[in-house]
Write a structure and sequence with these properties.
Shape: elongated
Helix content: 10-25%
Strand content: 25-35%
Distance between the termini: 29 Å
CATH superfamily of one domain: abc- transporter (atp binding component) like domain
CATH architecture of one domain: Distorted Sandwich
Largest sheet: 6 strands, mixed
Radius of gyration: 28 Å
Number of strands: 18
């Protein structure tokens, strides 16, 4: 016996945006003939290339990928804003889409009037709009500006209003593109609550976001688009981990290629030739599980013997927030002699970092801080974990309860 029909079915979807050359013509006849010939175009931009997947009713699907990977084009196909060049796209049930800030709003009229017009366009009756009106306004947080023209709204206000209308139109399928990128913490909390309500009600959500942690936490499944093609499709945590690993590897290659472009300073009295992150088996890696043992290994060289030296390591988030740093001077080690080639290793019995991508700095310098060789962001690595979390620390932990609390097995 077959299961329910998919809420979304995408089969071999390809979208090519055509490019046409501009020409000058001497006569009307030549212009018309040239226009007829030019309908084939002169090549085009392939935004999506043979993408196929289905989404079951009630499923939350995250869509990730770099800028230009085809995410927004996919949502436009699902919303029937554009049609595929080849292949097919089918969506069952009432659909609501929030793809651009304030898209579809009339800027000259008030928020009140836009709620009514947009609600009608989404298939609601006037009676349904009236019944949900106050909740939409409260959810969007625009009470003070309800009767002001939408053109006076900030981008955050516009997207809050658009999301509020879409979410309260009782859609079977909701398409959302980076709705949480603008707006305050309170709105983000309300939006996430609405996502949970959608899932509990058996609604289908397709969510595009660069917030990988949010996708891994809120979506059961994710797809990764890479240059218009489907690179991965599976459990959200696994797909996010694969994407992060690719990003970390590409960043490492880019930084290795441009190592002399400003990420390295120092006098050269001593140099760091190699920096490696090793797993608990002593193997080089760019991906670790939170809480595992790890070590940072440096191969250093001092052409001439020196007696003043300090080795240091620092771990930061990719946005620049320092997570941890230490050096041999802080650890109480007093230098005596460094000459020729040597190996330095900082061993960490449990790397209790939260899931994410981190950057590592390595340095050898004098005790007064004068750098011999400071290699900033010399490598990046990814930390994964079975359980999601926020921040940068993921300590060993457990919950305890007493009283009238029961949990499902």
């Amino acid at each position: 016996m077959s299961g329910p029909e998919p809420a979304i079915a995408v089969a071999g979807a390809t979208k090519i945006y055509r490019r046409y050359a501009r020409e000058s013509h001497g006569t009307l006849k030549s212009a018309l003939l040239s226009r007829r010939r030019s309908t084939r175009g002169e090549g085009g931009v392939v935004a999506l290339d043979g993408v196929s997947f289905t989404v079951a009713p009630g499923e939350s699907l995250g869509v990730i990928g770099s800028n230009g990977s085809g995410k927004s084009t996919l949502l436009k196909l699902l919303a029937s804003i554009v049609r595929p060049t080849r292949g097919s796209v089918a969506v069952r049930g009432r659909l609501a889409a929030l793809l651009e800030l304030g898209a579809g709003f009339h800027p000259e009229i008030s928020g009140r009037e836009n709620i009514e017009i947009t609600g009608l366009l989404l298939g609601l009756t006037r009676k349904e709009i009236a019944a949900r009106f106050d909740e939409v306004v409260r959810f969007a947080g625009i009470e003070e500006f309800l009767d002001a023209p939408v053109k006076t709204y900030s981008s955050g206000m516009a997207v809050r209003l658009g999301f509020a209308i879409a979410a309260h139109s009782d859609p079977d399928v909701l398409l959302v593109d980076e709705v949480l990128a603008v707006g305050d913490e309170a709105f983000a909390h309300r939006a996430l609550e609405k996502f949970s309500e959608f899932e509990q009600a058996g609604k289908t959500l397709v969510f595009v976001s660069h917030d990988l942690g949010l996708v891994a936490e809120r979506c059961r499944r994710a797809i990764w688009l890479d240059h218009g093609r489907l690179a991965a499709d599976g459990p959200a945590g696994e797909v996010v981990a694969r994407y992060r690993e690719r990003v970390a590897a590409e960043e490492g290659e880019r930084r290795t290629a441009g190592a002399g472009a400003g990420g390295r300073i120092g006098s050269g009295v001593a140099s760091i030739e190699v920096v490696r992150l090793l797993d608990r088996e002593g193997r080089p890696t760019s991906r670790l599980r939170s809480g595992e043992a790890a070590s940072v290994e440096m191969v250093v060289r001092a052409p001439e013997a020196i007696s003043d030296f300090v080795f240091g390591v620092q771990i930061s988030t990719v946005s620049g927030t320092i997570v941890f740093g230490t050096n041999t001077a802080l650890e109480g080690l007093r230098p005596e002699r460094l000459a020729g080639d040597a190996r330095v290793a900082l061993e960490i019995p449990a790397l209790d970092l939260a899931p994410g991508v981190y950057a590592l700095d390595a340095a050898v310098h004098a005790r007064d801080g004068a750098p011999y060789d400071y290699r900033r962001d010399v490598l990046r690595f990814e930390v994964t974990a079975e359980r999601a979390g926020t921040g940068v620390w993921s300590p060993a932990r457990r919950w305890s309860f007493s009283g009238g609390i029961r949990w499902k097995e």
